[in-house]
């Protein structure tokens, strides 16, 4: 039977401010999943920044009511602890009072895939804080379509055919499938606009799932877009898929993503070890963690802290230099996001104040 790997995440309260998760919330999440372990084969609870990450294996398929309900109830239970401790933004990602069967569009983010476990199944789970799902477009392109990143595309007969990208139009609630290598120029027209078009998943040319992200089309709840925050992504690796090192390599050169302070700034995405996943400088900069697992009969052997490698130290240094350069701009674009992408805006208030101040020139 097929195995499902589900990564479901939410921010239900930060410690301190929006910087990390209190140990008592992690303990509660583990207790809650443990008390319901008959639904699961295995689970792991991690945190990155202010987000709790539930990593679960089971046999119920993607979008399972039971699994989404379990994740929702776990986050609810953690919210009780967050409220008792008066943690910051307690329950902030649980945007609805009652659960309706699928966690998508309710605040939490989810990346799930169902597959036949291979003879050996090495997977990487990428988790980012202080950014949005568009952050995965460039690294996924490099992993699966750029031979300067992934030499396997050139010299491994199993990868030489290329891959299929599923791209979502976040605003129009539509999707399109594009093939690499033949459609890459078309693909790049879309995914270069990472606020609008996001890669949801990548398949082999034979239709086998290889990568999936928590990208979802935008829902407008409680006065804000949801499905936009702090994305996660699962990548299966090796033996016809990108090698572990090919999947990690795009992050060796930090690219610029939207997020950081008040979700309203362009910023480098810095690869860090699990221990360094506590963004504090200007509430960031955005960072990404990679948890490696060998899946064995559904059990999660891991995590291995893949960006702990000192070979990513230079990426961290470079990311910090980019951060310094952007920070010099303060409230100016292109550090601060354009008006229509700001998560916080005082523009209506300021415009109203100067309503009569604006005169024909
Ligand atoms: C970014 C983030 C933080 C907050 C900032 C202000 O995604 O979560 O940068 O936006 O700390 O937070 P509030 O408005 O809660 O005071
Ligand atoms: Mg928060
Ligand atoms: Mg967060």
Automatic annotation (TrEMBL):
One of its GO terms (molecular function) is fructose 1,6-bisphosphate 1-phosphatase activity. Mg(2+) 2 binds at residues 50-51, 129, 230. Mg(2+) 3 binds at residues 228-230. The active site is at residues 11, 225, 228. Its EC number is 3.1.3.11, 4.1.2.13. Beta-D-fructose 1,6-bisphosphate binds at residues 18, 88, 101-102, 130, 262, 283, 344. The keyword Transcription regulation does not apply. Mg(2+) 1 binds at residues 11, 18, 50, 92. Mg(2+) 4 binds at residue 229. Its cofactor is Mg(2+). InterPro entries: FBPase_V (IPR002803), FBPase_V_sf (IPR036076). GO terms for biological process: gluconeogenesis. Dihydroxyacetone phosphate binds at residues 18, 130, 262, 283. It holds the Pfam family FBPase_3. It catalyses: beta-D-fructose 1,6-bisphosphate = D-glyceraldehyde 3-phosphate + dihydroxyacetone phosphate; beta-D-fructose 1,6-bisphosphate + H2O = beta-D-fructose 6-phosphate + phosphate. Keywords: Carbohydrate metabolism, Gluconeogenesis, Hydrolase, Lyase, Magnesium, Metal-binding, Schiff base. The keyword Transit peptide does not apply. Pathway: Carbohydrate biosynthesis; gluconeogenesis. PANTHER family: FRUCTOSE-1,6-BISPHOSPHATE ALDOLASE/PHOSPHATASE, FRUCTOSE-1,6-BISPHOSPHATE ALDOLASE_PHOSPHATASE. Consists of a single catalytic domain, but remodels its active-site architecture via a large structural change to exhibit dual activities. Belongs to the FBP aldolase/phosphatase family. Homooctamer; dimer of tetramers. Catalyzes two subsequent steps in gluconeogenesis: the aldol condensation of dihydroxyacetone phosphate (DHAP) and glyceraldehyde-3-phosphate (GA3P) to fructose-1,6-bisphosphate (FBP), and the dephosphorylation of FBP to fructose-6-phosphate (F6P). This is Fructose-1,6-bisphosphate aldolase/phosphatase. It comes from Calorimonas adulescens. The gene is fbp.
